[in-house]
Amino acid sequence: MAVENIRNALLDWYDANARSLPWRLPPGSEKRPDPYGVWLSEVMLQQTTVAAVTGYYQRFIARWPTVRALAAADDGALMSAWAGLGYYARARNLIACARAVAGEHGGRFPDAEAALRTLPGIGAYTAAAIAAIAFDRPATVVDGNVERVVARLFAIPDPLPDAKPLIRQHAETLTPEQRPGDFAQAMMDLGATLCTPRAPACGRCPVSRWCRAFAEGDPARLPVKRPKQLRPQRQGIAYWLEAEGKVLLVRRPAKGLLGGMMALPSGPWTTEEPGLDAAPLRTDWKIADEAVSHVFTHFALTLKVAMARAPARPEVSGIWHPISELNHAGLPTVFAKAARLGLASRQKIMGGV
Ligand code: SF4
After folding, report:
1. d(CA 285, CA 309)
2. Which strand (E) or helix (H) includes residue 68?
3. Catalytic residue chosen out of the listed positions 42, 113, 147, 242
4. Is the CB of 100 under 6 A from ligand 1?
5. R_g of the chain computed on alpha carbons
6. Cβ(339)–Cβ(326) under 8 Å?
7. Using one digit for the tens of pLDDT, what is the confidence trace for 257-313?
8. Whose CA is nearest to atom 1 of ligand 1?
9. Ligand 1: which of 6, 17, 153 to mutate, judged by most atoms within 8 Å of the beta carbon?
10. Are 15 and 9 contacting, i.e. CB atoms less than 8 angstroms apart?
11. How far apart are CA 213 and CA 241, in angstroms?
């Protein structure tokens, strides 16, 4: 395969068609992008779309413009700013990584993959992305988009995820010494804009003449994926306890799912029908008619909302938050849904609002 031709064609295409993203500089720029911004965007983009990330990225950069500023951030403020973006372990690692860079690396990100990988929350992919994009190191960056492009270019028939090592080997053969940062982003952009999962736009693709899957006539069949296993179902109850115009919130324990995030009080989420054992108070709880459905990576949750109103704020642990300002409570999506259900149901369930 004409590796050099592929590289050149892809870089030419990127020069004319690069996506304009807030954490990027235009192709061929003399300057490199700020490693802090590259790192922040790459962490946010893990399992999350560009559209969902853009606003969060801009707010983070405006509030914490440097890694030192982020390292000095209050944990709770950062977790609240992350609320809604999901995969909250990333936010906890973000704080830990910023503090490691500020404390152990003089506020500068290392420029080599191996050193980057020693930092909290930076795995093989993110290390390669930072090394290539921020430091123009010839690192091979393989995300889901690149995996698809490479599987098609080389017509790799093995199913994912078993095919990952083979895909990486082929991807490494393409990584150039010249402009590796732009090349990595060109591969990502090709996968995101033309070489899409269901309907690749091969007619406009700069590397179609070297693409084996295109030559074979059915590129959309690649990469082959092993059928997904059904997600297990879990059930739980969130508690809406209100008093004097405020609702009880808690900060979840630092470790575990949604760790460190603000939430409505909630018991364990299990396969069993939940009881009211985890209620913050013994009282006459009423269950809202509807329930919240939410899908996590490893399970799907049905969350009921138990509701009660106390005449005065009872002595319970947690934070009383004004009901009228729930939008600003920094709730992760599942609890934001539960809070919306609570708000919509309180008149019917408890009356007198
Ligand atoms: Fe993807 Fe089609 Fe380009 Fe091959 S020719 S890389 S399948 S868009």
Report:
1. 9
2. helix 67-71
3. 42
4. no
5. 24
6. yes
7. 999 999 999 999 999 888 899 999 999 999 999 999 999 989 999 999 999 999 899
8. 195
9. 153
10. no
11. 58
**Angle (CA) 233 235 241, round 5°:** 155
For 42-87, what is each residue's pLDDT tens digit?
Answer: 999 998 999 999 999 999 999 999 999 999 999 999 999 999 998 8
At residue 232, what is the residue type?
P
Orientation of helix 164-174 relative to helix 3-17, angle to 10°: 80
The mean pLDDT value for 181-194 works out to 97
* Cis peptide bond N-terminal to 161, omega within 30: yes
Respond yes or no: is residue 177 known to be catalytic. no
Distance in Å, CA 269 to ligand 1 centroid: 43
Q: 203-240, pLDDT tens digit by residue?
A: 999 999 999 999 999 999 999 998 877 899 999 999 99
- Ligand 1 mean position, distance from CA 187 (Å): 11
Q: What's residue 331's pLDDT?
A: 95
Minimum CA distance residue for ligand 1 atom 4: 211
**How many angstroms does the Cα of residue 265 sit away from the middle of ligand 1?**
49
